[in-house]
Amino acid sequence: MVLAEELAKQQKSISVAEFFEKNKHLLGFDSPTRGIITTIKEAIDNALDACEESMVLPDILVIIRKTGSDTYSIAVEDNGPGIMPEQVPFVFGKLLYGSRFHQVRQSRGQQGIGISAAVLYAQLTSGTPAVVISRTGAKTKAHRFTLMIRTQTNEPEVLSHEEIDWALPHGTRIELEFASSMAAKKRLLEYLKYTSIVNPHARFRIEIDGEGTTFERVSGEVPPCPRSIKPHPHGIELGILKRMAAASDLPVEVFLQEEFSRVGKKTASEILALALIDGGVTASSLSPPDLKTLLATMQTVRIPAPPAQTCLSPIGEELLVEGLEKEFALDFVKARSRAPGVFSGHSFVVEAAIGYGGRLEAEGSAKILRFANRVPLLYQQGACAITQSIQSINWKGYGISQAGLPMGPVLILVHVASTNVPFTSESKDAVASIPEVEREIVLALQELGRDLKLFLSRRDRGRIAEDRARAVCAIIPDIASKVAEIVEAPVPDTSAIEGRIMRRVVVKRGLRGDHVSIRVDNHTAKPVELTLYDISADTGEGATIPPDFVSDLDGETTKCWRVALPPHESFLTEYPGSGGGSLSVQGIDESQMVLLNLDE
Amino acid sequence: MVLAEELAKQQKSISVAEFFEKNKHLLGFDSPTRGIITTIKEAIDNALDACEESMVLPDILVIIRKTGSDTYSIAVEDNGPGIMPEQVPFVFGKLLYGSRFHQVRQSRGQQGIGISAAVLYAQLTSGTPAVVISRTGAKTKAHRFTLMIRTQTNEPEVLSHEEIDWALPHGTRIELEFASSMAAKKRLLEYLKYTSIVNPHARFRIEIDGEGTTFERVSGEVPPCPRSIKPHPHGIELGILKRMAAASDLPVEVFLQEEFSRVGKKTASEILALALIDGGVTASSLSPPDLKTLLATMQTVRIPAPPAQTCLSPIGEELLVEGLEKEFALDFVKARSRAPGVFSGHSFVVEAAIGYGGRLEAEGSAKILRFANRVPLLYQQGACAITQSIQSINWKGYGISQAGLPMGPVLILVHVASTNVPFTSESKDAVASIPEVEREIVLALQELGRDLKLFLSRRDRGRIAEDRARAVCAIIPDIASKVAEIVEAPVPDTSAIEGRIMRRVVVKRGLRGDHVSIRVDNHTAKPVELTLYDISADTGEGATIPPDFVSDLDGETTKCWRVALPPHESFLTEYPGSGGGSLSVQGIDESQMVLLNLDE
Prior knowledge:
- The first copy, chain A, is an alpha+beta fold.
- Chain A is elongated and about 120 Å long.
- In chain A, 46% of the residues are buried.
């Protein structure tokens, strides 16, 4: 038997940097291809968070340059508030160092791992240090660092530090070099596109080997930065409560009100009365059994949900619809922001949108866009609670075919925003399965599904009606000529009737004696706006409705009417003249219109 | 704009214990129900690893007691080598502390996180410390500790430490209390059952509130402990090579041979010649560009795969088949161990088994058993590369219906053993998607699928033959009575003919004058073994084949023959007597036999 002494010799402490170096796939660095996307994502998350905190409109530049057969240099630059020079080595050169870990509010980054993991990955694969430039204001110079991470200790190693001139008044730039490939270029651009949809106040520019693409901002307003709130009594665990109480010299009654969200004097008294604890004793003096009772009572007393409005920053229905419409020119799109919910004391809100048709592919599975705290999720779609919730819905009931996922030209967007998004892994690829969250996703999508069903059945009814109308129109000319034959009259023009049956706009110009008439009939169910251009030798003077605009050229006069017609209404103007020339119509699709120039 | 100074004030270091406390779901502590299973799994992983290292046959006891309305006490005790008292606080009270992190070999635990995470979870949910007892040999006393983890620093806090008497000569016991539920009791027993299948040398006893279950060991041999090997040149990254070189004062040529697996003098010279590096210079003096070239060359030169036999410990085909047969009484079962493979320089081996019929459920999806390094994987089946590989196979081609997963009474077992199993998350629930590994899984299952197909088509042929035989048998009595009528003879007994047509065993006892005859005909295609019990007033003396065993009781004699018959052979014995009494047969299923006692 090998003795315990021998085994003990091998026991040692492992630094968190060593751990993540060996397990880099846990942080999204599974492959060189993915490494490049993860790095850019981490840098952009940080830039957007910092800009939001300092109320700056983000302007973010990403530069990718090939530096060797399989090495790339990646630089990400922002116009955020910058980082104090003494903090730079820790922010970039130490894992688990950050400002948002203990804050209860929605933010993209939280653990202080992401960007230093990118630095770790760079030095592991290319052996080169990170280059960081940061400037905190126009009055100070910029600071330039080259730095690495000492893996065995998880401490930063600064190789150089100097003050330099820099074009930006404030901001941060990080440059890394690592073994990678641009195999995922399409996915990278997709990531930027989706990031820009949910961050309409930010501008992104990306240059890949000199070739640039810009994702312009569409809003000039910085969204309000979510504010940190106190923990909610329903989301606390005994170990944490013990720590909080031990650190407080307040009377319990005040401690509860000061340290927890949504606990006022009344709630505090109610909790303490039920727990049989004297509100006057100091929190730090509570015994372990007292704390257990206190916790149990806190969690049974009814307390309002945490104040989601201040700590969360949803995208909003309007913005979701706009972003999707712009990107996919959809036939149908609708968004729904659900009311905030709570799981284990963490606030969350689910937003969802469904799109149909447009530029979406008609075949194959629906397009799924997943977001968490305004960050697109690109990997592990199958493992994500969002996907599983989508699959759990019976889409056939909404007129959509389904094979696990819904099929056809459908887009489904889900955004989960929370003070603590429950990811399945530290690479933040997929949302873990939390019943409260899944329920909200399903409810939001079911609401939207009903709207989609309505749209699809209306469209189908429209199609049936159109088919019938088309059949009727096909025989009208025959009927007309038969009737004309019987009554021995000339064959009438039936286009206007066809227009009416087909629910189109009919524009008709004709000559009645020495008068020219122009008539527009709106047979559609919608208001229409169009512009008539009537070009002939007639001047149009004396028209019953005078033209809005007249211009002469080489003896021909262009007479122009702007016509706005409610459904089923008509426009008619007449002027003295002899006709001829041409009539054209602008502002309406040709397929929606019948144009008859009868005096030609 | 908020200035960088203000943001800097919130920046701080986060301890790895704080990180995992907040993100406990990453380690498999997502819910109280799961917490109990994860804790037991971590303790058992450690126990099995330690027993293997010290060549002890593991004897593991798990005790679960309800201590409150929703609190449970969990104790896991093993007979391993024990832990040196000075190590105990670190092993249980500090995350990222362990002995196997830097070893290149198959082991269950690796990061030194699991059991301390359980301690963290216990103190978080119940506020109580862990109790650890450990004894390293019969000559020393046992040590008993109560300890917690200081979350903010990730350092152990020993609350008490004393020497005590303990029944076991060596071993370790950990006891934790936490908020949980026994909702997952079935899954827990399943976990133990599967663990015992792949660790046949271990005995597990579990007591849940006094009710005990034992999973007995079926093998008395400790499997050889995988030995640690040096890293393979194809699996190394620049950052690691730099670190290894910096720490070595050997000439590069020797450095390569000493520090890497499978590099001999010839390979070292080849690498150095191609890299244009002088083999005589000290490794630590190599410049960064030299190291880059060296790495690139190391990875292009052909080098044999790492020595999988020493560093891996597969289960073996025979053991897999035995374990499954015992558990599910399968109609068909076959296992395959593939030859070792390599991904990124890490050795791995894939083993698979397919079972059919028996106690498996006839309806629904196939039963999937996933293992990694001899540990069953219970969660996140959908996210696992094993499941995805199974789904990628066209099972219909093997006669199995399929809806994503194969359907019907099918069991599929896959074991991935590796020096570095690529898990999708630190909770070790699912194997990540690595093309080399997935390819081996698919190949193993395809081979087994072909065998299963053969079995199924033979069985179907057998069924058709049986249906025909049954039809023939149905008319035999009619034919017999018709023929008897014609030839005016008594109706003969046709059972033996039926037995022959139906491919069964026919056992027939009859009286010929003053002799009793017993005849056994094996009409099946398999050898049979059975025991005849002939009970009557006859003594059986003078039998042509004497009984193997005779016993008298109250004037009746039991005569007993053990009969082993190859396919299509017969057994016949005769003895003087007058018959009567009874004949019974043991050792063969009734459905496989026709028993005729003709003298009754």
